[in-house]
């Protein structure tokens, strides 16, 4: 049973009806093509209307859809010879983030990404993609390795935020994030970021700063998850929907605010409605930006990255 | 400071500058920069106006140059009395510009962090100030300049997870709350009481994230000694 949101129900009802009619028509050998065509026109019209005017909160739901593709799904589709590399060499290996090396579009690249789980069991192992300090430090180790070997870095962002708990604080969550930001700002290789689901808080930014930040059409990226924002401002996480409307967290908002560089289109209704098409669209955008960056002089690249981040939010 | 229990009360930015710098050496940068309600976030405009009126500040950070024990420095001091010292675009911009000034003048950069974290009302633009300030102090790092970060009560979230924890040397005032997630949020998440002293300066030193917890009465002298030890021959 696929996850269907309330606002999608009329679409699913129509689609189910069409499927039933088709079945009925085939079974009874009755020609219902006119009725079916008319319903199909209605459903595609309804889809365009529904998915073309998604509210920020609806986008949050789509960005969190359990069947949305994650970092590993894209790595599998975009990379050959991928080898996952584990551990921060200090404390442990954080399953909330994956990283490794492989070939992508003719380049040897280092890839890192937040990784949520499929289903409850894997989500518990992967901590819903919420990193601990050791996850941050694993990423930093791989960044530095990329720099050493002159490999571009590709980052996939998909997390509600950094983990919030006793161990994470004891092991320096804030310091770990801060170090990643400094490393990303000075890393002497091209960095392409793709926000593929939800990007929440410093936990997202720790993998989310680069020469090009791409964002899928229905992905969201914000200072904190809407729940955390509502909890901070109104001491009531239940007002998350309201917070989502105010935070300006959609890809369209972020492009306007100069926070991201490009929006990557998704299949109608979101990645989960047609994963292969979604992957093809992301691949095209990612490879295009990677190609462009690989042609730039490395010192110019660093200058441009610095000025880009210095300019964000300037009035 | 409370004479009985040695509790360190929160200072305003002006008070902090007063007890840290040599008298009459401070020259402020960007005093005219003030925040705007860019996202039209409900209630933010009024909140800003009220904070400005109550504190006499335009924003939650004061930056400038001055001397400490005769050493020229660039300094940034945050003020919790202004919307809990939260970091929005103007706070980030002022810190980054101050770091740029330190780089240009080739002098040490000293910051006093005091902040609840990112300013929610500026949304993603607030988050991006973490990137901006980290990048700015990253350039000091590359240039071999000293960055001394002092963490005061509280240093949390977007400020601790950016420039505040990137100092070459990190000092903290006794009892200061320092961390990423706030204790209330953690308690709600894990549904248990946090241990005594959790996320306090002493806890941070014990866990290896603060070089030294220094009582306010000794802070200026400690900073002077550190600056002395980093003074260049020229």
Description of the structure:
Chain A has 315 residues and is an alpha/beta fold. Chain A folds into two domains: 6-53; 60-311, 2-enoyl-CoA Hydratase, Chain A, domain 1 (Alpha-Beta Complex). Chain A contains 14 helices and eight strands. In chain A, strands 1, 2, 3, 4, 5, 6, 7 and 8 form an eight-stranded mixed sheet that branches. Chain A is globular, with a radius of gyration of 21 Å. In chain A, 49% of the residues are buried. Chain B is α/β, with parallel strands linked by helices and 234 residues long. Chain B has one domain: 2-enoyl-CoA Hydratase, Chain A, domain 1 (Alpha-Beta Complex), CATH 3.90.226.10. Chain B has helices spanning 13-20, 44-55, 89-105, 123-142, 157-160, 183-190, 201-206, 216-229; strands spanning 27-29, 61-68, 71-78, 109-115, 147-155, 169-172, 212-213. Chain B has a seven-stranded mixed sheet with strand order 1-2-3-4-5-6-7, with helices on both faces. In chain B, helix 3 runs parallel beside helix 4 (123-142). The longest helix of chain B is centred in the middle third of the chain and has 20 residues, at 123-142. The model of chain B has no long low-confidence stretch (mean pLDDT 96).
């Amino acid at each position: 049973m696929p996850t269907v949101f309330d606002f999608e129900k009329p679409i699913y009802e129509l689609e189910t009806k069409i499927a039933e009619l088709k079945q009925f028509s085939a079974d009874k050998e009755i020609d219902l093509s006119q009725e079916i065509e008319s319903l199909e026109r209605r459903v595609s019209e309804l889809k365009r209307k529904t998915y073309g005017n998604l509210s920020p909160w609806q986008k949050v739901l789509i960005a969190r859809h359990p069947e949305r593709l994650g970092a590993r799904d894209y790595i599998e589709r975009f990379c050959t010879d991928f080898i996952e590399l584990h551990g921060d060499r200090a404390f442990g290996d954080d399953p909330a983030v994956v990283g490794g090396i492989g070939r992508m579009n003719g380049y040897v690249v280092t890839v890192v990404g937040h990784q949520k789980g499929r289903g409850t069991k894997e989500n518990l192992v992967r901590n819903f993609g919420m990193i601990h300090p050791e996850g941050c430090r694993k990423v930093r180790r791989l960044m530095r390795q990329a720099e050493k070997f002159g490999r571009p870095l590709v980052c996939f962002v998909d997390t509600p935020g950094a983990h919030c708990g006793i161990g994470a604080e004891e092991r320096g969550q804030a310091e770990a994030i801060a170090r990643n930001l400094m490393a990303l700002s000075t890393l002497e290789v091209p960095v392409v970021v793709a926000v593929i689901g939800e990007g929440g808080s410093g936990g997202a930014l720790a993998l989310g700063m680069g020469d090009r930040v791409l964002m899928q059409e229905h992905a969201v990226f914000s200072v904190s998850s809407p729940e955390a924002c509502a909890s901070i401002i109104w001491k009531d996480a239940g007002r998350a929907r309201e917070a989502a409307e105010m935070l300006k967290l959609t890809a369209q908002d972020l492009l306007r605010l100069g926070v991201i560089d490009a929006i990557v289109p998704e299949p109608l209704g979101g990645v989960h409605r047609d994963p292969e098409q979604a992957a093809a669209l992301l691949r095209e955008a990612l490879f295009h930006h990677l190609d462009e960056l690989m042609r730039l002089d490395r010192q110019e690249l660093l200058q441009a990255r610095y000025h880009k981040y210095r300019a964000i939010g300037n009035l | 400071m409370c004479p009985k229990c040695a509790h360190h009360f929160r200072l305003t930015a002006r008070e902090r500058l007063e007890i840290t710098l040599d008298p009459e050496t401070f020259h402020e940068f960007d005093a005219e920069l003030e925040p705007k309600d860019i996202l039209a976030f409900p209630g933010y405009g009024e909140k800003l106006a009220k904070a400005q009126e109550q504190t006499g500040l335009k924003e939650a950070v004061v930056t400038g140059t001055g001397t400490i024990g005769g050493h020229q420095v660039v300094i940034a001091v945050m003020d919790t009395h202004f919307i809990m010292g939260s970091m929005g675009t103007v706070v980030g911009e002022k810190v980054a510009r101050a770091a740029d000034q330190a780089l240009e003048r080739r002098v040490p950069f000293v910051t006093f962090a005091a902040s609840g974290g990112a300013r929610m009302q500026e949304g993603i633009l607030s988050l991006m100030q973490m990137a901006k300030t980290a990048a700015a102090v990253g350039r000091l790092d590359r240039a071999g300049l000293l960055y001394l970060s002092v963490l005061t009560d509280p240093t949390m979230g977007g400020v601790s997870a950016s420039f505040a924890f990137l100092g070459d040397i990190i000092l903290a005032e006794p009892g200061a709350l320092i961390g990423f997630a706030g204790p209330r949020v953690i308690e709600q998440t894990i549904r248990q009481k946090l241990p005594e002293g959790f996320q306090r300066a002493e806890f941070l030193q014990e866990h290896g994230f603060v070089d030294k917890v220094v009582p306010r009465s000794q802070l200026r002298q400690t900073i002077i000694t550190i600056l002395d030890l980093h003074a260049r021959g020229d």
